[in-house]
């Protein structure tokens, strides 16, 4: 009948999944075919992604998914594999949390000042932007042998189909794209000494990306032909596309390992003020710009859970809900929290250094993290509205954190705005919806947002008042 099935491969920093989306008139259902861990591996050369294990997980997932009408791949941004002249992968992709980019940006700014870089690309400053990673790799034997750079979703798509491309939404995180032209910035590349010929041609979300190779069909038990579709391959682009907003006056927070908090705009904001506030202008579907700030996100909690030997999360969150609010907060946007390890200690140190009570028990540390995230959400939502001149009256929380009731309520309280939470699997849904466009089953963003609002279970959190306390906590951090 009128229903089709799509496999969405969605790779996050701690796990990957293959979801099956069924789309038909008035219908959008998502089921999980397979979920697998994503465990970064540290070798003497640094921190890497185990991309072969991820590819094996993708193949297992496609087998579990069964017959589908197309496949799409999204993942975290900026990271990439290097291929040699034969198209073979040169070692494992380096993890964006690896320390090799320390001090690299500062070196690049000597010839390409940070202000000019922002005016040309609109990208936030993060030490791991692809531009800095490529400069860091320069001079290594591996980079000398490299003839191609493929971003992680493009690399997996290449292995699935044999075809190479650079999908636009993810390309926009390289710091080599001009958000006004939505094309490569030749000037930035030249001045940074980066050969744009290393990148495969740009692909737009919705473009065909080839067919599953015969070996892939065999490995997955699927009957061909199975087309692969370029989706918004940056997971955050797919997640924003699946925000179930009913008007343009909304902010979103994509929660997971990171919190990506901001607005959907029709053009970039490239002002000096915006640069100082470290907002990024990444590209979204249908000519949109994702104007947002990166906040450390649930990474802070994930790293604590790891340090505590993975206690049960539900119990911990219940205990955290009982801890007195806003006792101590840390700056959840601080890049000092980027690297892995010793997270409970680092949070305690930050509280001590700012003269606040030091959280001791896991429940207290958890409450400190959630209060700090909500506070950072508030700041980002306020700053974005002011810098873009785009007011909102609702905050949509999508991604894994939409399941965290305490985080959603605190975010509503801190922002002084209603929070609409869900869908938790926004990235996979955005991935599916772009594939469904190819079969003309759905239309543009406004129409798919209506479909999402009608079909996905959403939870609404009203602000409980008391924004003055959040403002006071904000001042406490600013005075540091
Ligand atoms: C979220 C995300 C963010 C990006 C970070 C690093 O998964 O894609 O948008 O800044 O990971 O790639």
UniProtKB/TrEMBL annotation:
Domain of life of the organism in this record?
Bacteria
Q: Does the keyword Zinc-finger apply?
A: no
One Pfam entry name: FGGY_C
Residue ranges of domain Carbohydrate kinase FGGY C-terminal in the record: 251-437
A single GO molecular function term of this UniProt record? transferase activity
List UniProt keywords, sorted A-Z.
ATP-binding, Disulfide bond, Kinase, Nucleotide-binding, Rhamnose metabolism, Transferase
Membrane-spanning residues: none
Q: What Enzyme Commission number does this protein have? A: 2.7.1.-
Q: Which residue range or ranges hold the Carbohydrate kinase FGGY N-terminal domain? A: 67-240
Similarity comment: family membership: Belongs to the FGGY kinase family.
The protein, known as: Rhamnulokinase family protein
């Amino acid at each position: 009948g009128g229903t089709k099935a799509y496999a969405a491969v969605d790779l996050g920093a701690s796990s990957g999944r293959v979801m099956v989306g069924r789309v038909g008139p008035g219908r959008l259902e998502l089921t999980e075919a397979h979920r697998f861990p994503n465990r970064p591996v540290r070798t003497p050369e640094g921190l890497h992604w185990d991309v072969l294990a991820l590819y094996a997980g993708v193949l297992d997932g496609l087998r579990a998914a069964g017959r589908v009408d197309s496949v799409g791949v999204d993942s975290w941004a900026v990271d990439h594999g290097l291929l040699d002249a034969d198209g073979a992968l040169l070692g494992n992709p380096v993890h964006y949390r690896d320390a090799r980019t320390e001090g690299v940006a500062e070196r690049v700014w000597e010839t390409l000042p940070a202000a000019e870089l922002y005016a040309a690309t609109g990208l936030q400053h993060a030490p791991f932007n692809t531009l800095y990673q490529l400069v860091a790799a320069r001079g290594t034997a591996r980079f000398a042998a490299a003839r191609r750079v493929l971003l992680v979703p493009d690399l997996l798509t290449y292995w699935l189909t044999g075809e190479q491309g650079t999908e636009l939404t993810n390309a926009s995180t390289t710091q080599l794209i001009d958000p006004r032209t939505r094309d490569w910035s030749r000037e930035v590349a030249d001045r940074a000494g980066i050969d744009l010929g290393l990148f495969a041609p740009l692909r737009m979300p919705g473009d065909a990306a080839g067919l599953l190779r015969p070996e892939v069909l065999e490995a997955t038990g699927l009957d061909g032909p199975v087309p692969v579709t370029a989706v918004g391959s940056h997971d955050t682009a797919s997640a924003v596309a699946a925000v179930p907003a009913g008007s343009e006056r909304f902010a979103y927070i994509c929660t997971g390992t990171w919190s990506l908090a901001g607005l959907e705009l029709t053009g970039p904001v490239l002002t000096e003020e915006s640069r100082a506030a470290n907002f990024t202008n990444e590209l979204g579907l249908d000519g949109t710009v994702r104007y947002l700030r990166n906040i450390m996100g649930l990474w802070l909690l994930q790293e604590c859970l790891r340090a505590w030997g993975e206690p049960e999360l539900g119990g911990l969150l219940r205990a955290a809900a009982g801890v007195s609010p806003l006792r101590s907060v840390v700056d959840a946007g601080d890049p000092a929290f980027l690297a892995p390890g010793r997270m409970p200690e680092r949070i305690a140190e930050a509280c001590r250094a700012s003269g606040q009570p030091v959280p001791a028990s896991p429940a207290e540390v958890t409450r400190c993290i959630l209060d700090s995230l909500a506070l950072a959400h508030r700041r980002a939502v306020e700053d974005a509205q002011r810098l873009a001149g785009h007011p909102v009256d609702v905050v949509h929380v999508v991604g894994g954190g939409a399941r965290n009731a305490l985080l959603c309520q605190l975010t509503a309280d801190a922002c002084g705005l209603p929070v609409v939470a869900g869908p938790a699997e926004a990235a996979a849904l955005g991935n599916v919806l772009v594939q469904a466009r190819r079969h003309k089953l759905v239309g543009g963003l406004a129409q798919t947002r209506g479909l999402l609002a009608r079909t996905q279970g959403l939870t609404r959190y009203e602000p409980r008042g008391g924004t003055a306390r959040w403002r006071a906590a904000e001042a406490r951090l600013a005075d540091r």
